[in-house]
Write a structure and sequence with these properties.
This protein is mostly beta strands and 461 residues long. It has helices at residues 110-125, 156-162, 401-407, 436-456, and strands at 2-7, 12-17, 22-28, 38-48, 51-61, 73-78, 83-89, 92-105, 176-190, 200-205, 211-216, 220-225, 231-236, 242-247, 253-258, 263-267, 273-276, 290-299, 307-315, 325-330, 337-344, 348-353, 359-364, 369-373, 379-383, 391-396, 410-418, 422-429.
């Protein structure tokens, strides 16, 4: 199952699920003033009969008066009250605070009418294209459809209706609960210091949120305290730029992957080296022709103490004959590979792990998306041409009653984004299950058939 949910007016490079039905995308056209914005946009998934579509809940312009840069990488965490996003914008790590609240509104009120007019204006300006739902428009924070609007004078009938007694409740207009978001820009810190082409390549939060780690084009790993943003230590980790890094679920190890074809494990407490990862997914003479592309931890049933690590491996040396790409499962304690499977010749570009730790998704340079089980790396779905160009990000949808009512009774579903500006969803149909009484009668029928067969051939029991 695959469906196009909608399109945005900027190339997205980050996708993160915020809650059951909301997710954010971030990206942009960069410093060139070509009319392509740099923005964060939060969407809500909704269903209209048989169709799943997106509704814009908030739009935030990430440019300032002097600086135009796109968010190319980001890490998102929730501390129980608010969301904090660390976002890579060239050599800067910019922080954003996101809050959400539920409000009760009446459809057709002044708030609704005013937002409808805003959406019409935004559509005229071509702010975003989607199959259904509203487009986002205003610079900086644009509230959701049911966001705050200017108060309008009320007629005596409206005032009387607001103060109606419980006996008149049935005469009042029905209300609905909506979720509203707000984004606030916090501080920033320079995280890469390469002589030229400074660039933060990746960022990751510690599980407890007390520090964050960045990897840059200069090959350095830097650990920063939060919220002070003071440098704790600097590791000259790799000879080339760092492609990805991740912090272990217990927060005691940092794993870094680089274009120098090496992957290393570091102590999070002081930055000392523990070991290098040694991959054995191919013959020894072919290992040097591969490099690590991405790394993620998966929590089994969301339990950090029960986790596994997964990496992607792509050809480092291009040859006339296409080479296979690989997914590898690692033991998180010994840091040794347990299993590696080939995904084919389409070069891998993105990796995601489901919230329950049971599924793994990959995206490719041609726009394909595949979903595997994490237990044995068995391929469940492989869909070609989900996007017209390389996949830039993947984020699994939390599978709850609410999301299943939207996307269907699926085993899992993943959101995918691409430089083609499209947002798609790929799902795995629920495996067939049979009621216990049918299994009982089926077993009984097999026993009867066996007895009849033995009797027919003259055997006595």
């Amino acid at each position: 199952m695959a469906a196009l949910l909608g399109e945005v007016d900027f190339p997205p490079y980050v996708v993160k699920c915020v809650d059951e039905t909301h997710f954010l995308v971030a990206g942009g056209g960069g410093p060139v003033r070509s009319g392509v914005p740099n923005a964060i946009e939060i969407f809500e998934m909704q269903r209209d009969g048989r169709h799943l579509f997106l509704k814009s809940s908030l739009r935030y312009d990430t440019d300032t008066e002097d600086v135009r840069t796109a968010i190319m990488n980001a890490a998102l965490r929730y501390d129980g009250e608010q969301y904090l996003m660390a976002a890579g914008k060239d050599e800067i790590c910019q922080f954003y605070q996101m809050t959400r609240k539920k409000v009760v509104v009446q459809p057709g009120t002044a708030d609704e009418d005013e937002k409808d007019e805003e959406d019409k204006d935004a559509n005229k300006k071509g702010a975003a294209r989607r199959r259904k739902g509203k487009a986002a428009g205003d610079k900086n924070t644009t509230p959701s459809k049911n966001g705050k609007g200017k108060d309008k004078a009320q007629t005596p009938q409206q005032q009387q209706q607001q103060g109606a007694s419980p006996n008149n409740h049935s005469k009042m207009a029905p209300t609905q609960t909506v979720v509203q978001f707000a984004i606030k820009s916090l501080g920033s810190v320079q995280t890469d210091f390469k002589a030229d082409d400074k660039y933060q390549k990746c960022v990751c939060w510690a599980p407890h949120g007390m520090f964050f780690v960045t990897g840059g084009a200069d090959g350095h790993i830097r650990t920063w305290s939060f919220p002070s943003m003071e440098l704790m230590y600097d590791i000259e980790a790799h000879a080339k730029e760092i492609d990805d890094l991740i912090i272990s679920p217990l927060g005691n190890r940092i794993i870094s992957l680089s274009r120098d074809c090496k992957a290393s494990v570091w102590k999070a407490s002081d930055g000392s080296r523990i070991c290098d990862l040694l991959w054995n997914g191919v013959k020894p003479e072919a290992v040097k022709s591969y490099r690590y592309r991405a790394c993620r931890f998966g929590f089994i049933n969301s339990d950090p103490s029960k986790s596994c690590m997964y990496t992607l491996h792509i050809p480092h040396v291009q040859s006339k004959k296409p080479q296979p790409n690989y997914i590898t499962k690692w033991n998180p304690l010994t840091m040794k590979p347990e299993k590696a499977v080939s995904t084919g010749e389409d070069v891998l570009s993105a990796l995601g792990i489901s919230h329950n730790g049971h599924f793994l998704a990959v995206g490719t340079m041609s726009g394909s998306v595949g979903i595997y089980t994490t237990f044995n790396l068995q391929k469940l779905v492989w869909l070609k041409d989900v996007h017209g160009i390389f996949v830039t990000g993947l984020s699994f949808v939390p599978m709850t009653r609410t999301t299943r009512a939207l996307v269907g009774d699926l085993d899992t579903a993943v959101l995918s984004i691409s430089a083609d500006k499209r947002i798609s969803i790929v799902g795995v149909d629920k495996q067939g299950e049979y009621p216990s009484f049918l299994m009982f009668f089926g077993a009984l029928l097999i026993i009867i058939v066996i007895f009849v067969f033995l009797a027919a051939i003259g055997l006595e029991l």
